[in-house]
Amino acid sequence: MERMESKQKKEKKGFIVRALDSVERVGNVLPDPATLFVILALITVIISFICAKAGISVTYEGYNSATGAIEEITVKAVNLLDQNSIRHLVTTVVSNFTGFFALGTVFTIILGVGVAEGTGFMATLLKKVVAVTPRRAVTAVVVFLGIMSNIASSTGYVVLVPLGAILFMAFKRHPIAGLAAAFAGVSGGWSANLLIGTNDPMFAGMSTQAAQMIDPSYTVMPVANWYFMFVSTFFVTLVGTLVTEKLVEPRLGTYDFSSTESIQDISFDEKRGMRFAGISALLYFVAMLILVLPQNALLRNPETSGILRSPFMSGIIFFMMLLFLIPGIFYGIGARVIKSDKDVVALMNKAISGLSSFMVLIFFAAQFTAFFNYSNLGTIISVGGANFLESVGFVGLPLIICFIILTAFINVFIAVDSAKWAIMAPIFVPMFMRLGLSPELTQVAYRIGDSSTNIIAPLMPFFVLTVAFFQKYDKKAGIGSVVSTMLPYSIFFLIGWIILFVLWYILGLPLGPGAPLLYTTP
């Protein structure tokens, strides 16, 4: 009987490994994301030529920005190989890149995040919270900190995931359960957060450019998904905690604690830096409250005294940058890491240099987007697709749920979230707008699917690092071991997040400040 069970386990493991090997092979065959955009741009050129020669066009009722009225609009496919198109495309290469909405917003916020991360402020904050965590709350705290660490890009992967293992060992719990809980929070909760992170402006920029294919005046704000992601933070924490304690940890069995590691308390200089950072952060919050809360405050709308359409909301990225920059600088001063202004600038330079691959990706993504928009193929596909879906009655929640699942599936093969959204946004955002769904809703649906399968995507950049962490506590661990451990998180995140979204949709709650679920033509 035991032999049969052992054989079944081996066969099951063999199937998982074979399936993952297939995923890895398919993913490795795909070109680099930057190259992928070049290929897509060339495909767009060819299709535009064929569609233009065939006289393909669509007619729809839409907003005419020139007249400011709703009227019947006819759009024809534009041949990107004709002389006028070639002249236009070659003279706008630079402006396509510099005008790409996501570029400036990401660069702005990364200046502050880079200083907070470079001085050690973010890592010290994580270590301090982990060190004072009570036993009963350890799992929830590790998952929650994993989610929150996404503000500082890859800090969670590098700092918190190994800390999760050490913390669990300190409480005589299996270290791999700690690794899994931390990894689930960092990677599975990638889109959730209580604050606005670097992902929010990036997604908002791409969504804005896609939405403007339908409505030139439409802008998706960086805070467009904030309400939903705020609530999602607690949801992911709860689900991650239950999966760890009820499913993952019981399967791991016993662990030899003869070589238990301990969590070192932060040093004297780090404590001094945290005091400096805490005081500066408090003063910054007080200053912001003074500038925003009073009825006639400086950062309110000067005409309506509102907050939603105000200098505060328009400058939210700058204020978020300061939220990281100011405590980061004062922590560096207190911890004696920063000795002059040159050190601050050096940290900013280092943070920006880390965006080099992002810049390359954005350059080619911007050209593809420009080609796609100028050819009118996006409008034709969105109108045709929307008409078809409406004719068969496939709209509303069923459509969005299928879109979430599609995104989750694609994420296993293309793990770069910005690359996927740059490809998908120009098609799905305008298509769903025609079906009455807001760009903010389409964006949040994408983020649900994208985050849910991060933890089982072998091609995700930090997946290999996580495998190495697993091997520290289990020499036989490999890709199959990590995915089999993380699969319950992925399944329950996806199912639970869809349920949360359905409830949110039924209740008609806004996704963020000024971000409705439905889109109505102006």
TrEMBL record:
Instruction: Determine if Membrane is one of this entry's keywords.
Output: yes
What Gene Ontology biological process does one annotation of this record name?
p-aminobenzoyl-glutamate transmembrane transport
What are the protein's UniProt keywords? Membrane, Transmembrane, Transmembrane helix
> Which GO MF terms does the UniProt record name?
secondary active p-aminobenzoyl-glutamate transmembrane transporter activity
Residue spans crossing the bilayer: 34-52, 93-116, 136-169, 176-196, 226-244, 276-293, 313-333, 354-374, 394-414, 421-439, 451-470, 482-507
Keyword Ubl conjugation listed? The answer is no
Query: From what superkingdom does this record's organism come?
Result: Bacteria
From the Swiss-Prot or TrEMBL record, give the protein name: Aminobenzoyl-glutamate transport protein
